Amino acid sequence: MTLDTTLNARIIDFGRGVFTDLDTNEPSPLNLRYLNTLLMRWSMSRPDFKVDLFRLVDVLPTLKTDDAIAEHVREYLIPSANRIHPSLGWLIGLCKSPLLVPLTAFLVRNGVQQMASMFIAGHSPQAALPVLRRLRKKRYAFTVDLLGEFCVCEPEALEYQQRYLDAIDTFGETIPSWQEGTPIVPGHAGEKSPVCISVKLSALYSQTNVLNFERSVAILSERLTEVARRAKKYGALLYVDAEDSGNNSMIYESFKRVFGSPEFIDFPYPGIVIQAYAKNSEIRVQEMLAFAQQRGAPIAIRLVKGAYWDYERVISAQNHWDFPLWTKKESSDAHYEHLSRILLQNHEVCLPAFGSHNIRSLSHACCYAEHLGLTERDFEIQVLYGMAEPIAQAFMERGHLVRMYIPLGELLPGMGYFVRRLLENTSNESFLKHTFFDTEEVSNLMREPRMHTQDFQALTIAPKPDDLVPIQLQNVQPSF
Ligand SMILES: Cc1cc2nc3c(=O)[nH]c(=O)nc-3n(C[C@H](O)[C@H](O)[C@H](O)COP(=O)(O)OP(=O)(O)OC[C@H]3O[C@@H](n4cnc5c(N)ncnc54)[C@H](O)[C@@H]3O)c2cc1C
User: Does the Cβ of 479 fall within 6 Å of ligand 1?
Assistant: First the structure.
């Protein structure tokens, strides 16, 4: 799985260029991002404070009164604040004074809402239009996701589906008339429409369960068909997101059922997501490439590393199941590069979309494409809105189509998404943290990743998709 040295040298050189171009200027104290940067930096240097702060953010939408907020601020933050400095604990303790309770609640609510708005573009499709237009003006493509967590009953699932149908109507009727930034990369397949949505299938059916595989797939396919029909009406693009490994087998099956049907053979580049951290991800890639070939029309494949590592770790340990993912971060990085090469080699049947904020992973994809003689039209780069704009900008300015993944929704369902973004930004393993917050040597960050021996051994005995142990016993929240 190792690269030839000339190609690796080219990747390192390319990545160094990207690092040089990053606009990492500190935001001014008058900018919203200033507070965010300060809080992130502070919480990363104080892991216990970070946990307490994120617990407070997580619970905030359920706190209905000012008193409840002030009480939780005291309860969650004083112990870790005291460990930093007793005077800080004392200062936070002041918020119990009746005069300061409303002010504390106001500051906490507004601060958290403003931070969340950096990752969530609006509460409704209509409200998000100015943000989408601004991005298009800056020459970014986008894909919009509607936040929704814990779908526990059918009315909720159907309401979620309806929100997708309404969102496609709003976007389909408005966005194609915009002149801004069109086309970003002429002739690129991802430019067939400026309207693109990403769908989380498990939220479309409340009883999705692998123990009820056939019925789950039948209902998910039926509901996805409705969404795809509406997208087709406007010629819009669509991605189906990957979730936890319990749901994924049903997600892949539903995707194939819908987009392999005669009604959707002419649907342009239906997109699916594959997670490189999964031991069976190469088999998934082969399965999807074979599907595209059978279909006789190309699909899009977004390659990500995967957002459910901690969740899967806990569930498999609890149940004494085999862990379905790589155990070391470097193994996921190495496998990501391996799968990137397979996707690029098969660009005739798939449009590879590299979803990552890791400059090494993205530089590898760009340089391998160049090595194969491909152009910017043959693949795209995808990033999460609000996470790594300097990186997005550096790749966009090099002529690549960069698509931003944009969540929309109310703060309450969006809070889970927001907390996960905070965790991702501050995780010790995160490339972003090393890029923007640590002064880790660029040569370290650009080093070729190698698969860990233990993971490499697992690679040779990875199960086929059909042999996978069903590992979902409960409905879990979509989690990236
Ligand atoms: C546009 C876009 C769309 C996305 N869509 C999806 C989606 O549909 N489904 C989904 O699951 N995720 C999705 N993600 C999230 C993605 O899977 C990653 O969580 C995120 O991008 C971080 O990976 P990175 O390459 O940017 O950063 P890096 O910092 O390079 O990598 C972090 C990743 O490494 C992996 N990792 C961390 N620790 C370990 C370990 N000990 N052992 C093995 N692996 C480890 C995890 O996957 C972690 O997310 C999406 C991301 C983007 C940018």
Answer: no
